[in-house]
Design goal:
Layout lengths: L1 H9 L3 E3 L11 E3 L1 H20 L4 E3 L8 H7 L1 H4 L1 E6 L6 E3 L5 E2 L2 E2 L13 E4 L3 E3 L9 E3 L5 H6 L1 H8 L5 E10 L14 E11 L4 H18 L7 E5 L11 E9 L2 E12 L1 H10 L5 E3 L4 E3 L2 E8 H12 E7 L5 E7 L10 E5 L5 H14 L5 E3 L5 H11 L3 E5 L14 E6 L5 E5 H12 L1
Parallel strand pairs: 3-11, 21-22, 21-23
Antiparallel strand pairs: 1-2, 4-5, 4-8, 6-7, 9-10, 11-12, 12-18, 13-14, 14-15, 15-18, 16-17, 19-20, 23-24, 24-25
Helix pairs in contact: 2-9, 3-8
The chain binds glycyl-adenosine-5'-phosphate (GAP).
Length: 444
């Protein structure tokens, strides 16, 4: 994990938030490569779950909503973690995550066993909307994106003319005042979620939960996280939320242990039911075929952008020993991202920077690719070193413009380039005319 954290900082994936002022616990910034990686993940999730489906609508709700939403959903009363105080050092910790020795829990900060009884700590960040700081205009930063979907169910249904089963999908920020943020970006206080609420008839809920489990496993495979790395935790009766008839947690083998990436929960009609009760509005559905009114049930696949980004980094990270032409061996650090997720898709490199025809040609090739993908142009340093820099960034393809490309070694090789593959380090010759199609086929 330390190696991954260090690479992420060194190469501009992830920085501590407000670092020059000492940082802020539980908050992170994504740098030039990190923002591309995260964007690729969110764009592919959106494409798979919204654009490629006829039964899904997208939306983007506000982060701050009427406080009544959180009263109805139960978050105001129950969205809390058990917290204990250490009587010696006064640090606060999650009661269910305390270390234990000889059956006795102790403070992870100072080791003392003098702890208070656990009490509930609500995780929602509070603020006030408007210039008055009173209880009347208390608002919360949303701790999940899902509620914006439930309260817009009627709006989306009326404007989209979907029929059951159909879903509403959303990607956005969520905030939780976690007692102990930990494991890098795994548990933070500001993060992003990718959530689907898939509405259905009650009799279809169980079947569709299994359908979504399969869909989501396929998704992870398509971004480069194999099924063998994902543990499906079928939450047993008694451990699930009381309204859920089935819940699967998808867990990934992180270096710090197997931990949750996503939850897929069959939540019955609990959420719409609560909003009907509290708002008095008709969030039900009229089934034309059976002429019956019903409150739809819902299956909720809810994934974390930051946790999946971390899983992508962990899955991609590799170190291998390679030997150069002179017989020297060295360690090659490489991020083996699926090309679809890679922050930079293609690096364009003129063989030498002091040969204007090479530079000119390379710049023209880079410009022609830029509208289609994230391209990096690099002319500084030995070509081998430039390849290594791209390996560390996870760039799947490097294109080198050399003297053959500009026709100095005869017309047969003119307008061909060297295409170098990140994973195998193999090089092949490819015609410039075929380059776009070749790359697009692999990165989409
Ligand atoms: N609407 C359901 C819901 O929010 P959750 O299990 O609390 O369910 C869903 O959250 C996902 O959001 C988690 O599986 C995880 O990927 C992500 N997530 C939750 N808390 C997080 C945190 N503190 N930091 C980063 N990601 C978090």
């Amino acid at each position: 994990m330390e190696k991954i954290v260090s690479l992420c900082k060194r190469r501009g994936f992830i920085f501590q938030s407000s670092e020059i002022y000492g940082g802020l616990n539980g908050f992170w910034d994504f740098g030039p490569l990190g923002v591309e990686l995260k964007k690729n993940l969110k764009d592919f999730w959106w494409r798979r779950n919204v654009r490629e489906r006829d039964d899904m609508e997208g939306m983007d709700g506000s982060i701050i909503m009427n406080r009544a939403v959180w009263k109805a959903s139960g978050h105001e009363e129950t969205f809390s973690d058990p917290m204990v105080d250490c009587k010696e050092c006064h640090s606060r910790n999650r009661a269910d995550q305390l270390p234990e020795k000889n059956g006795e829990k102790y403070c992870p900060n100072c080791g003392s066993r003098k702890l208070t009884e656990p009490r509930d700590f609500n995780l929602m960040f509070k603020s006030h909307a408007g210039p008055l700081e009173s209880d009347d205009n208390l608002v919360y930063l949303r701790p999940e994106t899902a509620q914006a979907i439930f309260v817009n169910f009627r709006n989306v249904l009326d404007t989209s003319r979907q029929k059951l089963p159909f879903g509403i999908a959303q990607i956005g920020k969520a905030f939780r005042n976690e007692i102990n943020p930990r494991n890098y970006i795994f548990r933070s206080r500001e993060f992003e979620q990718m959530e689907i609420e898939y509405f259905c008839r009650p009799e279809d809920g169980m079947r569709l939960t299994d359908y979504w489990l399969e869909e989501r496993l396929k998704f992870y495979e398509d971004i480069g996280i194999p099924r063998s790395k994902i543990k499906i935790h079928d939450i047993p009766d008694g451990d699930r939320a009381f309204y859920s008839k089935k819940t699967y947690d998808l867990e990934y083998e992180f270096p710090f242990g197997v931990s949750e990436l996503e939850g897929i929960a069959y939540r019955t009609d609990y959420d719409l039911g609560k909003h009907i009760e509290h708002s008095g509005k008709p969030l039900d559905y009229f089934d034309e075929a059976t002429k019956e009114r019903l409150v739809p049930h819902v299956v909720e696949p809810s994934a974390g952008v930051d946790r999946t980004t971390l899983a992508l980094l962990c899955e991609a990270f590799d170190e291998e020993t390679v030997t150069d032409e002179k017989g020297h061996s060295e360690t090659r650090t490489v991020l083996r991202f699926h090309p679809r997720m890679a922050p930079i898709k293609c690096a364009v490199l003129p063989l030498l920077k002091n040969k204007p025809p090479l530079v000119e040609k390379a710049r023209a090739v880079a410009s022609s690719l830029k509208p289609l993908m994230n391209v990096f142009y690099d002319e500084a340093g030995a070509i081998g070193r430039r390849y290594r820099r791209q390996d560390e960034a996870g760039t799947p393809f490097c294109v080198t413009i050399d003297f053959d490309t500009i026709g100095e070694n005869g017309p047969e090789k003119q307008d061909t380039v060297t295409l170098r593959h990140r994973d195998s380090m193999q090089q092949e010759r490819i015609a410039l005319a075929d380059l776009k199609a070749y790359l697009l086929e692999r990165i989409l």
